[in-house]
Design brief:
The protein is of the alpha+beta class. It is built from five helices and 17 strands. A five-stranded mixed β-barrel has the order 6-11-13-15-14. The two termini are about 20 Å apart.
């Protein structure tokens, strides 16, 4: 099978805990993107690999905090994994239940999904090492549980970020969307290298400097499922975008939830949950304990790279 390597040339410039920092990538330095299968097929995958050619999980092996690749020190930014570049409509997402967590195009009943509404106008993706816990009901989420995915991100900078690329971003705020009965938070960020970044430090700055941007984001999420015959989405917190401080609280909650997932602690806590929720957690947790969370120091038998997906070492 042919494999195409695309280097991540457009690279961008705390987390607590029992998760080892040394075995996570703090930026996209040393990583490249490969593709497997034919585009526009159910088998197509976008895979991140390190310099030795081994597969790197974009969910588990990229640190939440961005680390400067030159100084090796934490920055004030977070890492953003782009799944859907701006001005595109194919619904790509990290495959959370597959070994190595490649990016795939979502499908329903065997058909690849696109946004029927049209192209999305911001870069869309997620924060690595986060998880919206389906057993957790946030008090501001209208009684809804987490959606069982990494925390979603809307990056509003000028650059079109490649699918699978990792960028350092500033957190600006957050929107609480309710999607078919699940809490689906949307973190608003801007690329740390964007020309607007020095002027945007909190959510009110976006409204002042880029008026209409937040309303457009909300309306996108409200209406994008209508062409599929579904009702408009709704929002918590009176449809308000909450400030950076509130967003950071949600991010921290989702980081802690991810830690519990990859260490197996969450599975041990789900005995009182209904069988459907337990099944969701059990499936992700079993995969994560060894194959998907090599940085977890409490599991010495896990390993950094996933030989199951390895084909050939890319040249950098």
């Amino acid at each position: 099978m042919n494999e195409t390597l695309v280097p991540m040339n457009d690279c961008g410039a705390g987390e607590p805990s029992s998760i080892s920092r040394s075995s996570s990538f703090g930026s996209e330095k040393g990583l490249g993107i490969t593709t497997k299968g034919e585009e526009d097929t159910l088998e197509y995958r976008i895979v991140s690999k390190c310099e030795t050619g081994k597969v790197v999980s974009l969910w588990h092996d990229i640190s939440l905090t961005h680390i400067d690749p030159e100084t090796k020190k934490d920055t004030d930014y977070l890492n953003f994994v782009c799944e859907i570049p701006k001005f595109t409509r194919k619904k790509y997402e990290i495959a959370t239940e597959e070994i190595g967590n490649p990016i795939k195009q979502d499908e329903k009943k065997g058909k690849l999904r696109e946004f029927k509404k049209g192209d999305i106008f911001f870069n869309y993706g997620c924060l690595p090492q986060t998880w919206e816990d389906p057993t957790h009901i946030h008090p501001d989420a209208e009684g809804c549980r987490g959606d069982n995915d990494p925390l979603d991100v809307c990056e509003i900078g000028m650059r079109i970020v490649k699918c699978g690329a990792i960028r350092a971003v500033k957190v600006l705020g957050i929107l609480c969307m309710i999607d078919e009965g699940e809490a689906d938070w949307k973190v608003v960020t801007i690329d740390a290298d964007d020309k607007w970044a020095p002027y945007l430090n909190d959510i009110e700055d976006v409204e002042r400097e880029l008026p209409g941007t937040l309303d457009a984001i909300r309306e996108w999420f409200r209406t994008y499922k209508i062409p599929d015959g579904k009702p408009p989405n709704v929002f918590g917190l009176d449809e308000k975008f909450m400030p950076k401080s509130y967003a950071n609280e949600i991010i921290q909650e989702c980081y802690v939830a991810w830690e519990e997932l990859v260490t197996g602690e969450k599975e041990r806590k789900t005995e009182s949950e209904d069988e459907e929720v337990k099944k969701l957690v059990r499936k992700l947790s079993k995969n994560s304990l060894f194959a998907l969370a090599p940085q977890n120091e409490s599991h010495p038998n896990s390993k950094f790279c996933y030989d199951d997906l390895d084909e050939e070492a890319p040249s950098f």
